[in-house]
């Protein structure tokens, strides 16, 4: 028998084959790593690119920007024009001053005292100053000033009503009318008919006795007031007056007016010279 031969591969080819396999694996690993890096890089740059594209889309065009600037400019010019039109232009200025309630006081005199500048813009009219000037007039009791758009200032006055008078006497300056608040507001030449005369040491709105007497005359019934010829007092609580028939009425203070008026009306049906209703619960009549 011929000897058996064993065919064995040479160790050198096997080693080369292993080396080539290892190199191939290394190349695949290197290529996979590069691909992973490229993938991460593309993911990282994609949002930035998207944001950049969004910013480009969000940025207004030049025409839109110009339009916005024109709108803003026109808005400012409109506001400036409105302010000038309302506060400085005479288009909405004063063209007329209307006076209401003036009878004894001249309407022209009220307009002159009010001194409203013609053409002054309505919004710049100082109603308080006008009211104060007109209220200082002697014959005016109350004043209300208002704007009637587009061009009229309205002044409504309530005149003072005389409730009595006093004579300043020889060497004085005449006959003076007094209202219910004790204000001396007008001087006349003749004694007014139908008004009682005040017989007081002095007549002034600052005098408590004057105010007490005029307050009583202002609250007694009109029919009774027409019978009063004179009124006097020594203190604010001692008001008394004389009637056309010569009777003297001791009224006291200005309280319980209605009660006193009813009691006095009943007492006057009886003869007497002095009628005291200062305490209406205990009235008296004396000769």
Please characterize this protein's 3D structure.
There is one protein chain. The chain is an alpha/beta fold and 287 residues long. It has seven helices and twelve strands. It has helices spanning 11-58, 62-87, 107-114, 127-135, 208-219, 222-225, 257-267, and strands spanning 96-100, 140-148, 152-159, 162-167, 175-179, 184-188, 197-198, 228-232, 239-243, 248-252, 274-276, 284-286. The chain has a six-stranded mixed beta sheet. The chain has a three-stranded mixed beta sheet with strand order 1-3-2, covered by helices on one side. Strand 5 and strand 6 form a beta hairpin. The N and C termini lie far apart (193 Å). The model is unreliable at 1-9 (pLDDT under 50).
| Quantity of strands, as a count | 12
Question: How would you sum up the global shape?
Answer: elongated
Roughly what is the average pLDDT, rounded to an integer?
84
Please work out how many helical segments DSSP would assign: 7
Largest sheet entry? 6 strands, mixed
Low-confidence stretches: 1-9
Q: What distance separates the N and C termini?
A: 193 Å
- Radius of gyration, in Å, reads 53 Å
